[in-house]
Specification:
Shape: elongated
Largest sheet: 8 strands, mixed
Number of domains: 2
Mean pLDDT: 79
Helix content: 10-25%
Number of strands: 19
Number of helices: 6
Low-confidence stretches: 7-18, 308-314, 390-397
Distance between the termini: 110 Å
């Protein structure tokens, strides 16, 4: 073959070039594909990691929402039960108020929601909380009341973000203390608690999803989520409504002891304070009751006549003013004329201890052991009773100390469960540790504050006090006013009262609650009217709190 011309390159055989080019192309294509897979896998891993992180964050939020509901349920039920057990008379017009103050109720709500009750901290305490995110969560709790169709927010609470906004409650102030709104007649009383959690997400903040809050709701059925002040994170919340309904039936099982107070005297002199049952009792009920010791006469009716047999005989010398049934054949009153204005149709005397017609023994016995009889209480036709006094319409002798012996026994002759029978014929006392319903530390505000003991009992309240005209001359009729204690009253209602006591140095409840009321005479007894929570079905429930019993349910 001739040599190529100068300046020209020899031609490359076509077969050689075509044989080598496809291999390099395939290798280059495969390398490019490997790079694309790595990018796709990296992107997928990033997406999967983000999705997993969101699942974790959302899971914790859903768990937190469940604990929000637990806290709201517990807090609202606790508030409802506290109110149901704190119903007391406000005045002589039969209005009621709750003796659990608004501030104390909000503290209780905070506790059950998972916050320290006596501070403003938003840090969870672990009560009704998810422990896994406790350090990443801040709480906010709101408390609202309703006495009808509308709601108002407790001034102790922060207002929930609702549209339209919820107004602040105008609270009744009694004795300088603000209490929840007065319950309205024929209306259930409702308490709404909303618990909100602001939870700082683990990874959602990196993708801009760590500042979410639900909008302000326009419907009461939707909870109003409130971001905790200064907290970063997503907000969840839940609400619960507790309804307090009243019962027209007394629910107490306590013995009906022979102690009483006037219907217009059962309101404590200061809100949240205690009522003094004996000692310098308040005047009222249509006349001056002075220092009358509020006690009914449960002695046998055969002793009610005008035959004076001795200075310790509870004989009232009421000529023509005798109770029906006093004329027993062969009895001391057989020749007397009955007075139809006395009523005994609903009275059954104590079969275990009918009484000895001796105020020094009967009074402490019935107080300490409980009156075992029965009486009819009704504002218009309840039993007419004489007051347990000797020959005058005011306390005489050691009546006050008899009362003290029945309640406290005293510092001598007392053990945890017994009293010397020389002090108290019953051999026990009202605040003995083995008495049914006794609390060595009362489960209420007074117990928490002062460590006072307490016990509940049914108390006969009276109305229509009357004074005998010309008592010392045999009596000529009845007057609706007078001086000293009334000579007779009508049993009006059976209310549940809680009596309080203080402990002696030996740890026994043997003295009046001086820690609560300050200086108190040893013959005085202090307490307050309480409502009781009805458990189970309540066929007699009305539509409002009462003094007789209440049912608390979640709405």
């Amino acid at each position: 073959m001739p040599a190529p011309a100068p300046g020209c390159l020899a031609a490359i055989p076509a077969t050689s070039a075509m044989g080598r080019a496809p291999g390099r192309a395939r290798r280059a294509a495969r390398a490019a594909e490997r790079g694309q897979v790595l990018v796709i896998v990296a992107l997928l891993m990033t997406a999967l990691t983000a999705m997993l992180a969101l699942v974790v964050d959302v899971g914790f939020l859903l768990t937190q929402r469940r604990f929000d509901q637990n806290g709201a349920d517990a807090a609202s039920l606790a508030a409802g039960r506290a109110l149901a057990d704190a119903v007391s008379p406000l005045d002589a017009s039969a209005r009621l108020y709750f003796t659990q103050s608004d501030a104390e109720l909000y503290q209780s709500v905070r506790y059950y929601a998972g916050l320290a009750p006596s501070t403003t901290s938003a840090a969870p305490t672990g009560v009704n909380r998810a422990g896994a995110v406790q350090g990443r969560t801040a709480l906010a709790v709101t408390l609202e009341y309703s006495t009808g169709a509308t709601w108002c927010v407790s001034p102790s609470s922060v207002a929930p973000p609702r549209t339209p906004s919820v107004p602040a409650c105008v609270l009744p102030v009694v004795g300088g203390v603000a209490y929840p709104p007065l319950p309205a007649a024929a209306q259930p009383f409702r308490v709404r608690v909303t618990v909100s959690s602001t939870t700082n997400a683990f990874v959602a903040g990196a993708i801009g999803g760590n500042a979410l809050s639900p909008p302000a709701p326009q419907q009461d059925s939707i909870p109003a989520c409130l971001r905790a002040a200064g907290a970063a994170g997503n907000v969840t919340c839940a609400q619960a409504v507790a309804v307090v309904l009243g019962s027209t039936s007394a629910t107490t099982t306590a013995a009906r002891i022979p102690v009483s107070t006037g219907d217009c005297q059962i309101s404590a002199p200061a809100g949240g304070g205690l009522f003094q049952f004996w000692g310098a009792a308040a005047s009222g009920c249509g006349g001056d009751v002075g220092s009358w010791n509020n006690l009914l006469d449960f002695t046998t009716e055969t002793r009610w006549c005008n035959t004076l047999t001795g200075t310790t005989d509870p004989d009232y010398r009421y000529v023509n003013l005798l109770p029906a049934g006093a004329q027993v054949a062969g009895g001391a009153c057989a020749g007397e004329q009955p007075d139809p204005t006395w009523t005994r149709s609903g009275y059954t005397r104590d079969t275990v201890y009918p009484g000895q017609n001796d105020v020094n023994r009967d009074v402490p016995y019935w107080i300490a052991a409980g009156f075992g009889g029965a009486i009819r209480a009704a504002p218009t036709d309840g039993n007419r009773f004489p007051t347990y006094l000797d020959l005058s319409s005011s306390p005489a002798g050691n009546l006050g100390q008899n009362i003290a012996a029945g309640f406290y026994c005293g510092s001598s002759g007392v053990t945890a469960t017994t009293c010397d029978t020389a002090i108290n014929a019953a051999g026990t006392y009202f605040f003995a540790k083995n008495r049914p319903g006794y609390h060595d530390v009362c489960p209420d505000t007074w117990g928490r504050r002062y460590g006072a003991g307490c016990r509940d009992a049914a108390v006969v309240t009276w109305t229509q006090p009357e004074w005998a005209v010309g008592l010392n001359q045999g009596g000529t009729g009845w007057a609706t006013s007078g001086s000293g204690g009334p000579a007779r009253v009508r049993a009006a209602r059976l209310l549940t009262f809680r009596f309080y006591c203080d402990h002696s140095g030996a740890g026994l409840c043997t003295q009046p609650p001086k820690s609560i009321v300050g200086t108190a005479a040893n013959s005085s007894v202090w307490g307050r009217a309480v409502g009781h929570v009805v458990s189970g079905p309540c066929a007699t429930c009305t539509t409002g709190p009462s003094l007789y019993g209440n049912k608390v349910t979640l709405q």
